[in-house]
């Protein structure tokens, strides 16, 4: 009885909308049935379809997608969006939708359906020319800076400004607030998740700002200086909001368990985002001191750019520092919600680090004496959001020029460089840990460049820093930076960039999608290879494919250092020899 009616299959280049015409025949009484198809010329992870009839229809049904909005009886326009589990389609496939409905008039309806691709965001990233007059380099470090800054822009939480450059991001988490309604919007999402963890966020801010203060010419000459100021201002504004009262500091917004138990973009989040704070009685010296360090560093960076903002940062840094010094606790012992994700091991390093940044911002020598009290001698394990000893010893040497601190730095570098304590991959990556190996190597590369800057073994340290950064940029045969260089990762473990554009739904289907993330998360350094340079671009493997604010921080600052050296014609012209001595 049901005579099937086919219509046109339309081929179109997606990216633009594609329209398919259909015709309808009445089959029985006033019922009709029809279908339309789109021949896909590119992969799809989400779509919307707009159906338009030339006369009103009612009780329209289809089984492939979800209706969007409410459609009054006898409407002529209907909109649908893919179901969460049915958004992914491959190039070459015919995407067909069968529908049934009832006519409202005696006329047989005809019309068309338009497919809107919610996959491609059309993001364009300008080319960055090599810096004029600088040494030529194997990789365009200015382009890396540009893209790394874009990565931080993609991590923004809160109300986005008009000059947002990430077309697939929008306002999110506008309800983030403290216990008594304090505004806690803003800041950066931590990694591939949507929690705001202030401890690593503040460390990332300090380390990025350190690189800007040291090697401002790299940002200036690559045209990135204003973007960089905007980049670090974002978390600084948020961290200041978190200091809601003289003796309290919010240190986390969002619950890790709830957040990691779902897979969606920040814009689609629903549900409660609890905020967690430290107080004098429920303390956290480490996170307080790191926050003070970030704002103190900011006050230095903004001194000539925006003097009023610089003063505000310094006043807040002093207030937070004073409050943090009243407590001796590790924050993750009092804020249980942080313990499973960013557990702090020891506050001794932050006692030195916070004091040294306060010294650099104020010139008050009592802070140096304070930092020296917390000196931890010998080789450091590394340099990270939790372990700042290498950075402390670096700054102690910079401000005192005492040989004991220089010996600590030499010990750390000896332990890290070929022939030292760390295993190396066959292609010369210092392999500290499988979870985010590239980030540890990049962070120690920053210490190496800072030490070289202070005249400590500059040639080998610079060569080694180059070997580690260039490994990530392509020396291992591929790039480990999303959207940069040869064969970059396309499937970072990152919720927002894995989701199609709104209004398509996004959940675990986006994580399981075998294809690339629909959005290129430009500039993100992924965790990196295993110990034998083994790597698979697999979204589900977070040890190798997660990205995070702290991963890019030391990396970006080191790249700024290398660009600075090329501008000054001090970059080693050869660096591979540094690898020949490894065990
Ligand atoms: C932290 O480190 C210091 C110095 O290395 C050490 O004396 C102290 O016992 C450590 N504290 C904890 C809680 O591990």
Automatic annotation (TrEMBL):
Pfam families to which the protein is assigned, alphabetical: Glyco_hydro_9 (PF00759)
Highest taxon listed in the record's lineage: Eukaryota
InterPro entries in the record: 6-hairpin_glycosidase_sf, 6hp_glycosidase-like_sf, Glyco_hydro_9, Glyco_hydro_9_Asp/Glu_AS
GO BP, sorted A to Z: cellulose catabolic process
Keywords: Carbohydrate metabolism, Cellulose degradation, Glycosidase, Hydrolase, Polysaccharide degradation, Signal
Record GO terms (molecular function): cellulase activity
EC number: 3.2.1.4
Signal peptide as annotated in the record: 1-15
Record-linked SUPFAM superfamilies: Six-hairpin glycosidases
Reactions catalysed according to its record: Endohydrolysis of (1->4)-beta-D-glucosidic linkages in cellulose, lichenin and cereal beta-D-glucans
Keyword DNA-binding: no
Domain named Glycoside hydrolase family: residues: 141-557
Protein name: Endoglucanase
Lineage of source species: Eukaryota, Metazoa, Spiralia, Lophotrochozoa, Mollusca
